[in-house]
């Protein structure tokens, strides 16, 4: 048996299999526990004695390493595993692993493979997500597209129906064969979104009831869907920026998922409550855990105390790290193209974030969508002829404030393609009005 993306803590299960004469190869990237399973081989760069230089491959990336090793051992063409780099890239993007070193290279070639020889299943997913129109990608595929358009759809299958559907979809060699699994996966995604929305509303109502002075958020509802607790944890953090654990009931236990805040080790805080837990595992930034229902209350208190003991108050304020200040006249296609040579962007190699000051509204900025978003057209004080457009999601309420005052904007640069004409746009993350 080959375990992929799991198994590093499966000491008993591997012993049991050994008793039945079944050999195990474990390909995992999660933190090992105190004892290691007695498998035939373990590929996990996080083992303390592992000298492999790249420590943060995705689970699928480790599987790719096994495939590469087998190609060598069996004297096959070394290019053989490269056919699967699209899947390796999808896994790396969706697993939010650092996009540096080997991951960045794997993602670069994986995205290239998706663009040049897209699997039928992926085509149908990207069409459903509105990214692919008449067989053409609307714009170059990014890690963000994979995370938001492909990932949730693939995950929805496992969460709402069965992961096998996603396997069928991704291994289909013809569009015809991919059609049925694709329509089911897309349906699962619609349901997942609905469930996600309901859970989120309930969770946000619970957040309102919490003591404002606590430094952690632990929410439990026995009826929440196990598959979407991770997403809800991230959304809850958008309104209450604290180490967050969202739990639901499954098989008579409380089980769920934890998200950390920048710079804080949530895995260590959970580990300090290990005596209350049945299982737990993960990384500094995200972890999973299971406990008996009767331990919930004590866990909530102990986790709060564990976070409180080590967290720095500054870690509770979300911040946007800025890479560089730009004058609007510096923004042009040449600049964008050289910046883009550092792509694919992702964790630890984020799309550069810029700031510009003394911006002025051209009076053509307006609220869009349901009024919560802002479509901007701005210039910079002193260089009024240089205009640039932008979009600011969730900042519609800033329109009144920027109408007659100078402001600063923090943004990333995006390409907008309309009727075949490419232009640069600010994707505005935050706006600050200058003191008048
Ligand atoms: Mn994993």
Q: Would you mind describing this structure in some detail?
A:
38% of the residues lie in helices and 23% in strands. The chain is an alpha/beta fold and 436 residues long. It has 13 helices and 17 strands. Helix 1 (11-19) links the parallel strand 1 and strand 2 (25-27). It has 3 domains: 2-192, inorganic pyrophosphatase (n-terminal core) (Alpha-Beta Complex), CATH 3.90.1640.30; 210-316, Diaminopimelate Epimerase, Chain A, domain 1, CATH 3.10.310.30; 324-433, OB fold (Dihydrolipoamide Acetyltransferase, E2P), CATH 2.40.50. The strands form 4 sheets. It has a 5-stranded mixed sheet, sandwiched between helices. Helix 3 crosses helix 4. The model has no long low-confidence stretch (mean pLDDT 93). It binds manganese (II) ion. The site of manganese (II) ion has 4 residues, from loops.
Task: Please describe the structure with a list of short key phrases separated by commas or semicolons.
Diaminopimelate Epimerase, Chain A, domain 1; 38% helix; 3 domains; 23% strand; binds manganese (II) ion; OB fold (Dihydrolipoamide Acetyltransferase, E2P); 436 residues; five-stranded mixed β-barrel; five-stranded mixed sheet; alpha/beta; inorganic pyrophosphatase (n-terminal core)
């Amino acid at each position: 048996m080959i375990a992929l993306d799991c198994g590093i803590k499966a000491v008993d299960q591997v012993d049991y299999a050994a008793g039945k004469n079944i050999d195990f190869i474990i390909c995992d990237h999660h933190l090992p526990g105190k004892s290691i399973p007695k498998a035939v081989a373990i590929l996990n760069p996080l083992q303390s004695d592992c000298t492999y230089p790249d420590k943060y491959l995705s689970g699928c990336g480790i599987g790719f390493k096994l495939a590469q090793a087998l190609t060598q051992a069996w004297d096959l063409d070394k290019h053989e595993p490269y056919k699967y780099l699209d899947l390796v890239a999808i896994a790396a993007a969706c697993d939010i692993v650092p996009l540096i070193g080997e991951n960045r290279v794997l993602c670069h070639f994986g995205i290239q493979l998706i663009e040049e020889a897209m699997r039928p299943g992926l085509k149908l997913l990207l069409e459903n997500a509105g990214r692919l129109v008449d067989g053409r990608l609307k714009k170059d595929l990014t890690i963000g597209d994979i995370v938001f358009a492909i990932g949730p759809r693939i995950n929805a299958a496992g969460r709402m129906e069965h992961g096998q559907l996603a396997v069928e979809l991704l291994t289909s060699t013809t569009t015809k064969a991919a059609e049925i699994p694709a329509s089911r996966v897309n349906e699962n995604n619609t349901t997942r979104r609905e469930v996600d929305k309901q859970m989120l509303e309930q969770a946000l109502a619970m957040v309102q009831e919490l003591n404002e002075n606590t430094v952690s958020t632990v929410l439990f509802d026995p009826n929440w869907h196990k598959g979407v607790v991770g997403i809800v944890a991230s959304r809850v953090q958008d309104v209450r920026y604290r180490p967050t654990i969202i739990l639901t009931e499954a098989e008579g236990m409380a089980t769920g998922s934890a998200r950390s805040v920048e710079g804080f080790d949530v895995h260590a805080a959970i580990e300090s409550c290990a005596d209350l837990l049945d299982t737990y595992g993960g990384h500094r930034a995200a972890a999973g855990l299971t406990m008996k229902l009767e331990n919930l209350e004590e866990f909530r208190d102990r986790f709060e105390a564990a976070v409180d003991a080590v967290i720095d108050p500054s870690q509770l304020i979300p911040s946007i790290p800025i890479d560089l200040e730009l004058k609007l006249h510096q923004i042009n296609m040449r600049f964008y193209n050289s910046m883009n040579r550092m792509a694919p962007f992702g964790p630890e190699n984020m799309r550069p974030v810029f700031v510009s000051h003394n911006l002025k509204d051209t009076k053509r900025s307006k609220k869009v969508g349901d009024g919560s978003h802002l479509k901007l057209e701005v210039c910079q004080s002193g260089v009024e002829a240089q205009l640039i457009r932008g979009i600011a999601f969730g900042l519609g309420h800033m329109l009144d404030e920027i109408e007659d005052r100078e402001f600063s904007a923090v943004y990333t640069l995006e390409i907008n393609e309309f009727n075949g004409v490419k232009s640069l746009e600010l994707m505005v993350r935050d706006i600050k009005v200058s003191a008048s």
